[in-house]
Each structure stands twice: as structure tokens, then as C-alpha cells.
Write a structure and sequence with these properties.
The protein is an alpha/beta fold. It is built from 24 helices and 13 strands. The longest helix is centred in the N-terminal third of the chain and has 31 residues, at 201-231. It binds one RNA strand of 78 nucleotides through α2, β8, β9, α15 and α16.
RNA sequence: GGGCCCGUAGCUCAGCCUGGAUAGAGCGGUGGCCUUCUAAGCCACAGGUCCCGGGUUCAAAUCCCGGCGGGCCCGCCA
């Protein structure tokens, strides 16, 4: 039993390869000899192209060298190899073939023996790190939408992957309760007489936020139009009126949803002498921690977070710690950071505001290269403190980042790619403070946004696809489909399976793509339960379970030497490779690599399923070997989905 | 104007970091396969200037330079 069967094969190949090279050409020194996965099945289980490099050095053809190398390796195999059966020269490459029976036996028994833990290839004791993954961190003023879903699902998968790798991981949600947006909501909610939330609280407050915002915009625009008319600026009047029209349309949409609430709010805002002043007063009082403001703002945020927790629970995502931005403000940490930053000499007062000279920091410490920026690029400065003395978001974020480093030596922030500059500023601020190591251990895990064709999502207008709505739709679709495939299930089972399948479909869609690329959201795509989807993988898992169930016996006398079909070989290799795939995905922070692997394995398994019998295979040794193989596939699919936070039902 | 990201089949995407043997999936299209372990499946066919142009290399979708196209960012917003 081993944790990494393919790794065992890999290092065997590598060892024999280096030894053979040393024996044949003793003077030659090659760095970075490696064996890699061949592009095709007929090129073996592992391959090396060193002969192309050696050819130049030795003045011989790659083909010649490959033959010499292969036969040298083959002469070493009988005495030295456990898993390797033969090396073969082909077109200048040396291709390695494993002893399939032994590799199958090792991989399958390792998977079956380790069960849930198979694939969790831990780093060495010295490499274990304390990691904080901050993710989701949706503003507590509206329900989560699809974009937040992508963030949450990525952050959660990262945490799972890093834990599987043996790291000590904590997930955090940063509650942005300070600032104008929450204050707008608080203002509106207060104007309504602070009614008790109806329905899911984040949805309720999201509507109030959008309505308040809309009322404020319309009021502001009307005033500006009048001002522009007085100034006789026709062009400006036209532009403002167009904007006003678009908000009037939003108002119409919002009113339809809750007319009473809407009318009450609008007349309150109309009647308010100076709404902006009231909102600023909320901001000020909350930052100053005045009781009335704390009660109002915290009350709202707590309610919204209750809604978030419900959504996250449904997604199977748990947050270890909720950090409040206000706590950072109320502590003296912001003031301390500010003082140190000023003392660092990398700030400057301009027009009464305090600026951070990010570019100077990068130049002083020679960071542009490692940050991937050209020397000529001038990093824009950043305002830390307004001329009225109030702080801006980034300085609080610097303070919060330092706080996170008290509990971790690596901090991963799952934040949209649109905030790259802001995250760069935070990193440079840490450098300015002399915290170079922390700065280097601060990772911005940037993902791209989720686009919706046609409509533009806007929280301020209350216009977006909520995650709750999306999940509901997917689950109900799954609910409809379950009986077509598994008739006769109890209502309870049907509901449970629909939940796992529907939620899984949504999560997989958001996870399976390169985070750097934007996702164009379409219902079609999320509700496609066919190939390249979670339901497809789950279905494959259920099929494996079904075989094992129907077999009704343990594979007691497997004869792995009878596994020889290409499909069997591909399955064995995939099972063997799984731990390495997990390790690579974790180390490179690429959950999508796991998703792609599940598709590949499911794909191979379904072909196997269609062409080779398991239970009725003859002789019994073959049937048992296939049964064990099916069990190993089941385990790997389940664990792989598990790393993505997706469930694997046993029937569906 | 500057910076970052993306550009691969009609559509949605893998592969690019770490160059290698005829570039892979899915959807959609066409044609087959349920009296055999779940047809959310399988098999076959059709479909490609890997955005363009240079360069490096024995070898470039992959690395470098220059373009073009799309997105995002450059607030005393978050």
C-alpha cells in the first residue's frame, strides 16, 4: 500500500534513467531530466525526450541514443525494478511500460485500503503551513449572486485541496460592514421604520438596498438636471435625462416587487431635506462606534449573514471565522498601521489627503520584476485618508491583512481580478512596513467575473441572478429527472438525490473552468446534466456503485494479470495518478484540474462499462480484478468530487 | 494614454507555467446501440489558418518581440 502509486513508478523510471545515462556517458551532466506523460496510449505509461537534448551534446542521432538508453535500462530492470517492465526506444523517445498487473495491484489496493484518504498526498512535515483562505466576503446588503457563487465555490475547493495536502487551513469571511453601501441600506431601513424581515433576510434587505439606492439616484439626478437646465448646458441635460430614464425603469421594476415598501421609501427620501448628510452621519457614527448606529448596522448585517449562511450551508461550504471590518476600525490597528506607514516615508500629503506612494516602494525594494511589472510602469498612488480625516477601504485592508498573518503564514485572498491593483497596493503597503515576508506570502487568487449575456448584473438596481434562485432551479430540474433513471425511490431519497445533483451541477459549472477566464452564464449550460457536468460524473459513480451492489460479493481472488484491455490500463493509470493530480492541483491552486480529471476518469469508465462485463466476466479471477478496479474507480470519483465539495450519491 | 487578463472546431471549453511523436472533450449536426452490471450512457462520422506577423529552437498552440480583437483596472467608491 502506498500513498502515491504513480509517483513510485515515476521515481523508478527516473532513477533507472539517470543511472543508465551515467553508465553510458559518464561525463554527461544533465539537469532537469524528467519523465512525462506521453501524448498517446501506445507511447507507454511514461516517456522521456532526453535523447533530443543528448543528441547535440554527443553528436549522435536521438534514435541511436534512445536505443542504447532503452537497452541499458532494460538490462537494469530485472534486478532493480518493482513496477517497471520494459523500456522501449521509439522515434528518439524512450517510452516506459509498467508491469500492469503490479501497478494495478498496487494502485487498486492502495485506493481500497486508504478509502476516503486516497489522493490526500501530504507534504513533508517541514512544508506544512498555516494557511488562511479568505473567500466569498459578499457585502451584507443583498443576496449572493452567481459571481459570489464562483468565489465561494473556488475558495472552498482551495481550502479542501490544501487540507488534503496536509496544510492547516482556516477559511475566513470578511464582513464589509463599514462604509457607504451599508449606510445607505441602514438609512433606507430606518426610514421604513425598521420592519421585521419577510422571507429570506438577505433577499429582503437586498430589495430595500436597491430601492433606497434607486430613490437616492433619482433624487440626485433630478437635482442635477435642474442645475444643468439653469446652466443652459443642453448636452449635459440630455445625458442626465437619459440616466434618469434608466433609473426610472429600475424604479418601475423594483416597485412591482413590493409596491407598499417602495412607495413608503420613495416618499421618505423625497421628504428628507438632506439624505446624503443622514447617510454620512451613519458612516461617521458607526466608525465612532456610537450605540444607536451599532445597533442599526449590526442588526442588518447579522440578518444578511444569516441568509448567507443558509445559502452556504446548502452549498456545503462552511466558514471557520467571520471577521468584521468594523472590528479592525474600532481597534487601534488602523491608526497604528497608518502611523507606521507615515513613518516609513512612503506617504505624502496632497490637498489635505494622505497618499501612499506605491511606486516608490516598488522601486526602493526592486520589486517590479517579481511583481511582473515593467520598470517603466508607474504604479498609481493610493489615497489612504480623505482630507476630512476618514479612512478608505485599502488602509483597513492592510490592517486586516496584518491581523490575518497573526494566525497564518500564508494568506490567500479569493477576490475578483478587477481588484488586482487594490491587492497590489496592499502588498506594497506591507513591503513599505518592512513586512517583506508577509508581502510575499500574500496571494491574490484572482478569478474572473461571471457575465450574463444581454442583461448586466447590478446589485444597486436589484438586478441579478441570485445564487438561491439558481440552486432552486437546478435542484428542481434534477428532481424531475431522478425518477426517469431510478424509479421506485422514496420521496425522501428522491429529494435528497435531487439536492446533491442540482447543487453539484451548479458548483461544477463554476469550478470547472480556468479561474482566469470569465464565465458566460447561461441556464442552458448550468442545467446541462450531460457530459462535462457534475451529474455526468455523479452518474458514473452511481453506476460503479450499482455494479458493486449487484455483484453482492467481495473481490476475493482478483488476478490482476488478467487486466490487459486498453480501457483497463487507462483506468489503472488514472487511479494510480490521482494522488499526483491532487498534489499538483493543490500546489498550483487549480481546482479546475480536479474537475477535468473527474471528467476524464468518468469518460474512460463509461467506455469500459459499455464494452467489458464485470460481474459475469470469466474466469472468476478476472471478474474479481474488474470488481476491485470498479471499486477503486468509485473511491477516486468520490474523493475527487469531495475535493470540489460535491457529493456523490450511490444511486441517481 | 498606461497596466493586467483572455483569443484553440459553428458554440462552450481542456492543453500553454515545465516546448516534443497525427491538437483533445462537450454542446449542436449526421448515422447507429436498451431481452446483458442505471441510455444523465456508449460507438461511428463530419467539423481546426491553435487571432495575425516576426524571432528563438533539431522541434512552437506552448517561450520571446510586435500587432489586432475582446474584457477588466487606473476615484478623497468598495
Amino acid at each position: 500500500m502506498v500513498a502515491d502509486p504513480f509517483g513510485a513508478l515515476r521515481s523508478e523510471c527516473l532513477g533507472l534513467l539517470s543511472e543508465a545515462i551515467a553508465r553510458l556517458w559518464s561525463g554527461i551532466k544533465l539537469d532537469g531530466i524528467k519523465v512525462s506523460l506521453p501524448s498517446k496510449l501506445e507511447f507507454g505509461d511514461l516517456t522521456t525526450n532526453v535523447c533530443f537534448t543528448l543528441a547535440r551534446e554527443l553528436g549522435k542521432s536521438p534514435q541511436e541514443l534512445a536505443s542504447a538508453l532503452a537497452s541499458e535500462i532494460n538490462s537494469l530492470i530485472p534486478s532493480r525494478a518493482e513496477l517497471l517492465s520494459t523500456a522501449e526506444a521509439a522515434g528518439g523517445y524512450v517510452n516506459f511500460w509498467s508491469d500492469l498487473a503490479r501497478l494495478a495491484e498496487l494502485s487498486i489496493s492502495s485506493a481500497r485500503c486508504l478509502g476516503d484518504r486516497y489522493g490526500h498526498l501530504e507534504v513533508g512535515p517541514g512544508e506544512k503551513r498555516k494557511i488562511i483562505v479568505e473567500h466569498t466576503s459578499a457585502n451584507p446588503i443583498h443576496p449572493m449572486h452567481v459571481g459570489h457563487g464562483r468565489n465561494a465555490v473556488l475558495g472552498d475547493a482551495l481550502a479542501r485541496l490544501l487540507r488534503a495536502r496536509g496544510h492547516d487551513v482556516q477559511t475566513r469571511f470578511y464582513v464589509n460592514d463599514v462604509g457607504r453601501q451599508v449606510a445607505i441600506l441602514a438609512y433606507g431601513y430606518d426610514k421604513l421604520g425598521r420592519p421585521r424581515p419577510r422571507g429570506k433576510p438577505d433577499h429582503f434587505f437586498g430589495l430595500i438596498y436597491a430601492m433606497t439606492n434607486c430613490a437616492l439616484e433619482i433624487r440626485r439626478l433630478k437635482e442635477e438636471v435642474n442645475r444643468a437646465i439653469r446652466a443652459g448646458s443642453d448636452e449635459r441635460v440630455r445625458r442626465l435625462k437619459a440616466e434618469l430614464d434608466s433609473w426610472a425603469f429600475s424604479a418601475h421594476e423594483l416597485r412591482r416587487r413590493e409596491p407598499d415598501l417602495f412607495d413608503k421609501l420613495f416618499s421618505a427620501v423625497e421628504g428628507d431635506e438632506d439624505p446624503e448628510a443622514s447617510i454620512s452621519e451613519v458612516v461617521r457614527a458607526y466608525e465612532a462606534r456610537e450605540g444607536w448606529a451599532v445597533e442599526l448596522v449590526r442588526g442588518i448585517c447579522e440578518e444578511c449573514l444569516r441568509g448567507f449562511r443558509e445559502t452556504l450551508d446548502r452549498l456545503g461550504i462552511s466558514i471557520d471565522k467571520w471577521d468584521w471590518e468594523s472590528e479592525v476600525v474600532w481597534s487601534n490597528l488602523v491608526a497604528k498601521v497608518l502611523a507606521s506607514l507615515e513613518a516609513s516615508g512612503f506617504t505624502k500629503v496632497r490637498a489635505g489627503a494622505l497618499e501612499f506612494l506605491a511606486n516608490a516602494v516598488a522601486e526602493r525594494f526592486g520589486l517590479k520584476g517579481e511583481l511582473g511589472l515593467s520598470g517603466e510602469f508607474e504604479i498609481p498612488p493610493l489615497t489612504l485618508v480623505r482630507s476630512d480625516g476618514t479612512t478608505l477601504y485599502e488602509i483597513r485592508d492592510v490592517a486586516y491583512t496584518l491581523r490575518k498573518f497573526k494566525d497564518a503564514d500564508l494568506v490567500i485572498n479569493v477576490i475578483g481580478a478587477d481588484q488586482k491593483l487594490a491587492q497590489l497596493h496592499v502588498k506594497l503597503a506591507l513591503h513599505a512596513l518592512g513586512e517583506h515576508e508577509k508581502a510575499r506570502n500574500l496571494i491574490h487568487f484572482a478569478y474572473n467575473l461571471v457575465k450574463i449575456p444581454g442583461a448586466k448584473m447590478s446589485a444597486r438596481r436589484g438586478r441579478f441572478i441570485t445564487l438561491d434562485g439558481l440552486l432552486e432551479e437546478a435542484v428542481s430540474r434534477a428532481y424531475d429527472e431522478v425518477p426517469e433513471h431510478s424509479p421506485g425511490l422514496s420521496e425522501e431519497e428522491r429529494t435528497r438525490i435531487a439536492e446533491v445533483v442540482g447543487v453539484g451541477a451548479v458548483k461544477f459549472t463554476l469550478l470547472a473552468q480556468d479561474p482566469a477566464k470569465e464565465i458566460t452564464f447561461t441556464w442552458d449550460r448550468v442545467l446541462n446534466f450531460e457530459e462535462n457536468s457534475a451529474p455526468y460524473v455523479q452518474y458514473t459513480h452511481a453506476r460503479a456503485c450499482s455494479i458493486l451492489r449487484k455483484a453482492g460479493r467481495e473481490p476475493e481472488q482478483p488476478d490482476f494479470s488478467l487486466l490487459g484491455h486498453p480501457l483497463e490500463r487507462e483506468l489503472v493509470l488514472a487511479i494510480a495518478r490521482f494522488p499526483e493530480v491532487v498534489a499538483d492541483a493543490a500546489d498550483s491552486l487549480r481546482p479546475d484540474a480536479i474537475a477535468n480529471f473527474t471528467i476524464y476518469l468518468a469518460d474512460r469508465f463509461n467506455s469500459f462499462y459499455a464494452s467489458l462485463p464485470v460481474i459475469r466476466a470469466e474466469p472468476r479471477g478476472l471478474s474479481d480484478a474488474r470488481l476491485a478496479l470498479v471499486d477503486a474507480v468509485r473511491i477516486v470519483l468520490k474523493n475527487a468530487l469531495g475535493l470540489l465539495g460535491i457529493g456523490a450519491p450511490e444511486r441517481m
